[in-house]
């Protein structure tokens, strides 16, 4: 009404009121009335802003790579930015130009320039695994960049969400990595089989060593038993030898005793000994001895007449006398 307008800015917006080319009112989150026909209102957002980006770069091996990420920044010098870009608004709060959108583009271009310097030093394979190094280098350079400072902005953070190769190169790298993984898998299987064979060999060797140890123990048992048997036989041999010696000595003693008994009788005639026996000689024995003497001296006997009566008497006596049992 009558050109008088009212503005109530949030705390995240820095407001500047120009009149006659000079700033008459400035601050964050202000609210005031102003006369719009002779005033220019500038509103600069000072809250943090997230700007996504996607750009393609070439690596040192002339391969395309797509880098996707996000920049977070805030305006820390609204007056410098307002003097560089047009952030003036109309009575309805709409920007009068498209300069506010150029701020994001300029930051993205600065980040892309710094990222290009990094990617040109890396091969595609190296770049795909260097996102942390890329973030650290580009963020450090953004915070010290004069282009960013000239815009009155401050970069709060930088994140790289993905680094991708072209589909053809991605398939090639995946195939190479897949073959490498398959080779490692084959090597792992080969190593596992070798380990299994080695373990089996060790088990067989342990079994053989156990069997050898058992055989050695059994051999020791047999040798011990054999040694015990030999010792027993030696003891038995010693015992038999001693027994034989004892028997020999006993026989010798008996022979010596018998010799001592018979020595006085060797010169005595056997007839005398027979006659001196406890039972003496009967008639038949005496007749038998007489016949023996006759037989021994047969060459001296001319004729010998034996009467039938004598033979009958001898035969009768033989039948009446019982035989002696031994």
Name the average pLDDT.
Answer: 85
Low-pLDDT parts are none
**SSE sequence, one letter per element:** EEEEEEEHEHHHHEHHHH
Quaternary state, please?
single chain
Helix fraction, binned, reads: 55-70%
Largest sheet: 4 strands, antiparallel
> What is the highest CATH level, the class of the domain at 4-165?
Alpha Beta
CATH architecture of the domain at 4-165: 2-Layer Sandwich
Strand order of the largest sheet: 3-2-5-8
The CATH superfamily title of the domain at 4-165: Band 7 domain
CATH topology of the domain at 4-165: Tetrahydropterin Synthase, Chain A
Q: Output the number of helix runs.
A: 9
**Count of extended strands:** 9
Question: What class do helices, strands and sheet pairing give?
Answer: alpha+beta
What form results from the Cα inertia axes? rod-shaped
């Amino acid at each position: 009404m009558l050109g008088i307008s009212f503005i109530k800015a949030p705390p995240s917006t820095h407001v500047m009121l120009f009149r006659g080319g000079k700033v008459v009112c400035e601050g964050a989150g202000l609210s005031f009335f102003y006369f719009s026909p002779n005033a220019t209102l500038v509103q600069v957002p000072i809250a943090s802003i997230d700007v996504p980006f996607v750009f393609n770069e070439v690596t040192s091996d002339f391969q395309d790579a797509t880098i996707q990420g996000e920049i977070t920044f805030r305006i820390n010098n609204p007056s410098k930015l307002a003097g560089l870009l047009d952030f003036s608004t109309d009575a309805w709060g709409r920007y009068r130009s498209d300069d506010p959108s150029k701020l994001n583009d300029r930051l993205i271009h600065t980040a892309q320039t710094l990222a290009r310097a990094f990617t040109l030093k890396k091969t595609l394979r190296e770049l795909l695994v260097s996102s942390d190094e890329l973030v650290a280098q580009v963020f450090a350079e953004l915070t010290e960049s004069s282009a960013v400072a000239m815009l009155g902005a401050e970069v709060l953070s930088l994140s790289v969400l993905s680094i991708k190769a072209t589909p053809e190169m991605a398939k090639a790298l995946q195939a190479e990595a897949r073959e490498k993984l398959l080779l490692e898998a084959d090597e792992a299987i080969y190593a596992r089989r070798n380990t299994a064979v080695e373990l089996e060999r060790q088990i067989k060797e342990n079994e053989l060593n156990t069997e050898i140890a058992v055989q050695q123990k059994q051999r020791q048992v047999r040798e011990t038993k054999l040694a015990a048997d030999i010792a027993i036989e030696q003891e038995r041999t010693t015992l038999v030898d001693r027994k034989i010696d004892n028997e020999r000595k006993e026989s010798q003693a008996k022979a010596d005793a018998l010799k001592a008994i018979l020595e006085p009788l060797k010169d005595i005639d056997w007839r005398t000994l027979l006659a001196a026996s406890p039972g003496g000689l009967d008639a038949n024995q005496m007749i038998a001895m007489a016949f023996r003497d006759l037989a021994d001296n047969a060459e001296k006997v001319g004729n010998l007449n034996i009467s039938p009566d004598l033979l009958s008497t001898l035969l009768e006596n033989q039948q009446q006398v019982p035989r002696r049992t031994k």
